[in-house]
Amino acid sequence: MAFLKKHIPALAVALIVAALLFAARAMTQFDILLFDRFLPGLGFVQVAGAAALGFWLTGKFLDPVTAPKWRRRTWLWISAAFFGQLLLGLTVSPVFLMTGGLHFPVPMVIEGGVVYRGGLSFMPILFLSTILLSGPAWCSQLCYMGGCDLYRSRAGKNSKAFSMPVKGRWYFRIGSVVLVAFVALLLRFLGAPGWLAVTLVALWGVAGWLIVAFVSPRRRQMIHCNLFCPMGAIVSLLKWVNPVRLRFNQNHCTRCMRCVRVCPYAAITASDLDKGRPALNCTMCGDCHSACSHGAVEYRFLGLGPSKARTAYVVVVLALYVTFLMLARI
Q: How far is CA 157 from CA 166, 238, 261, in A?
């Protein structure tokens, strides 16, 4: 009984992961789990493994000391699983692909595809669902490019101290959303040939990877996610549908600025501390919470205390993360 009480959050993650994967397995008309594809009927083994992984990771994420390290590490796992299975699907066997219907693995396609097709498809629905369930966690744990951008942003000199916000950053962010929508709409109404749309998406993807590889480490900030990616801006604007909030307790804050230096999104400045809340582009990654030794960074959720609110949020985000990891394929 004591074990169950101590590990309630971890058990909750394991149960949610198992429920989501079993539901996905039952609702799809094809084998959505890799174990079912290689060993028909044994998908439950993969589900059990995923639940165990969620159980184990919960302790790592709830501990403020280890949470930032494990967030960076596990976010790279998403990228490795996504792009690794894409590569294997293209070079070894289509069994590694989700359905065989390929699309470019560029986040802007989520927005551009909706405008170009004039309707929602699986990926936009999944994207919007994650915002509803976890707020901005798409941009701190779930996006297949974000983990790479975070890794590269820490590769420059003095990487432990991230840079301050880029001046006029919201002109870049909103500009990317408008540009993608405008070009997609233009292609749709002009009836442009498919090769032109593919070329434009490919160029955008190449530009994004060049920013990740070279600009983010130089600027010591996640420049791709903070300025270039339109989905990041959309997440920032829509995340309020989720009730979880991050706040700075003015009674505990000493203005030591440790939270400012560890934020890879440049979402905290002295002005934000005075306001008692991070900037609009905060993804609630929790790195500031781990860096604060004064207990000033607090999660708020439905009247729960800060500790319980953070635990509830971690449970939801980790459950989604492990589920994504098991299904990270095109």
A: 18, 34, 14
pLDDT value of position 120: 81
d(CA 77, CA 63): 20
Sign of the torsion formed by the C-alpha atoms of 136, 80, 86 and 213: positive
Nearest to 282 by CA among 247, 253, 257: 247
- Rounded CA-CA distance 36/241 in Å is 36
Measured CA to CA in angstroms, residue 187 lies from 42, 116, 191, 198, 251 at distances of: 45, 7, 6, 11, 54
Assign residue 164 a region: left if phi > 0, alpha if psi is -120 to 50, beta otherwise? beta
Count of Cβ atoms closer than 10 Å to residue 81 Cβ: 17
Q: Report residue 7 as tokens.
A: 């590990």
Rounded to whole angstroms, the Cα distance separating 22 from 324 reads 13
Q: Where are the domains of the chain?
A: 1-62, 63-319
Q: Which residue has the tokens 């590769």?
A: 155
Structure token digits, residue 172: 């870049």
Tell me which residue of 326, 262, 323 sits closest to 292, measured CA to CA.
262
**Each residue's pLDDT tens digit, 198-247:** 899 999 999 999 999 999 999 999 999 999 999 999 999 999 999 999 99
* Spans of the chain, pLDDT less than 50: none
CA within 13 Å, CB half, 112: 24
Q: What is the chain's alpha carbon radius of gyration, rounded to the nearest angstrom? A: 20
Residues in contact with 83: Cβ distance below 8 Å, sequence separation at least 6, in sequence order: 105, 144
Q: What's at 107, amino acid-wise?
A: P
